[in-house]
Specification:
This protein is an alpha/beta fold and 336 residues long. The chain contains twelve helices and 13 strands.
């Protein structure tokens, strides 16, 4: 994955010269997305469909949001199936992910991670995936990263945003970090979920609060208390996620003795030479190797016992509102 240019993260009222020069290409990108999302759906399910997506490129917290929704639905006695494109995998589907048989090369790391907690389908054609999941007994479909994909009709659409970064400079690629303009994207959303701590949420409201055209809820990713004695533990951390510095900050917050922090590319393969280098660094530092759950599924099976992970889960600021939303879910309606 490419590194995002620095000017993408500027405040929305000061995008900078580079963003302005790239504005014509951004207009073309916005127009292309607008034409695509106007298409009528290819498939209208007979069960409720939740879409979890974003406006930004890169990570915003979609994966933990999907996991949290699936967990809430399971608590209600509802079987939810996840539909995902399977970024980084070779198989196009539709197929149900089998964690005992499929590898990260087959279906991608996010699909494997989802499949640990819920029935998960990889489908390059989301309509085919939704139809297969419904036929297999899904009572609710949760679409991962489908906000700009109109192929499946939706009952409820959530746009997830990283509260710390917000919508960047507010511009569409390549002028900024967005897949489509904020106004256009949120017009199709039923909820904007910003994820981050209190300070980040305050900045998000200052920069974007006046532009939110749909209901807004906040959430925060918190480490799961597994009983692991992190305080004072010497660790060498590595992460191949969109914003690895957040993982390193989590370890510091747990009190770990962070003796090294290796930021990898998003979804970067964990090949033998890279793992050997990380293991050598950890030995030299007298540290335990630790990584994220998403990175851990990319590790060779024989290596996984040598690495620690820090599970994190999404906590909603208003769980009662989420509960009411899930209780009120209905199958999508076929539009004109």
């Amino acid at each position: 994955m490419m590194r995002q240019p620095g000017f993408w993260s500027r405040r929305p009222n000061a995008p900078g010269l580079a963003a302005r020069l790239l504005a014509p290409l951004a207009l073309l990108g916005a127009y292309t997305t607008a034409q695509r999302v106007r298409r009528q759906p290819d498939y209208v399910a007979k069960v409720p469909v939740i879409s979890v997506g974003n406006l930004n490129v890169g990570g915003t917290g979609k994966t933990p949001t999907v996991a949290a929704l699936v967990s809430e639905l399971r608590r209600r006695g509802t079987e939810a199936h996840v539909i995902i494109r399977g970024y980084g995998g070779q198989l196009k589907g539709p197929l149900r992910v089998d964690t005992a048989r499929h590898t990260v090369d087959d279906v991608g790391d996010e699909a494997l991670l989802h499949a640990i907690y819920a029935p998960t389908w990889v489908a390059a054609n989301r309509a085919s995936g939704a139809e297969a999941a419904e036929a297999a007994g899904a009572q609710v479909l949760v679409l991962d990263d489908a906000h700009q994909n109109p192929s499946v009709a939706k009952s409820f659409s959530i746009v997830v945003v990283d509260a710390e970064r917000g919508f960047g400079n507010g511009r569409v690629m390549p002028s900024g970090p967005l897949r489509e303009p904020v106004g256009a994207g949120l017009a199709r959303a039923d909820l904007c979920l910003s994820i981050g701590g209190e300070g980040a949420q305050t900045r998000f409201k200052v920069d974007w609060g006046q532009t939110l055209s749909c209901p807004h809820m906040t959430g925060e990713l918190r480490p799961v208390n597994t009983g692991m004695p992190w305080h004072g533990l010497p660790v060498l951390a590595f992460a191949g996620i969109a914003h690895p510095e957040k993982f390193f900050a989590t370890l510091r917050g747990l009190g770990a003795d962070l003796r090294g922090a290796v930021a990898l590319g998003d979804h970067q393969p964990l090949g033998p030479s890279l793992l050997a280098r990380l293991e050598a660094q950890a030995r030299a530092a007298g540290a335990q190797l630790v990584t994220t759950e998403k990175d851990a599924v990319r590790l060779p099976v024989k290596k996984r016992g040598s690495f620690l992970t820090v599970p994190v889960r999404l906590t909603f600021s208003d769980p009662d509102a989420i509960d009411r939303t899930l209780a009120a879910l209905r199958p999508p309606q076929a539009g004109p």
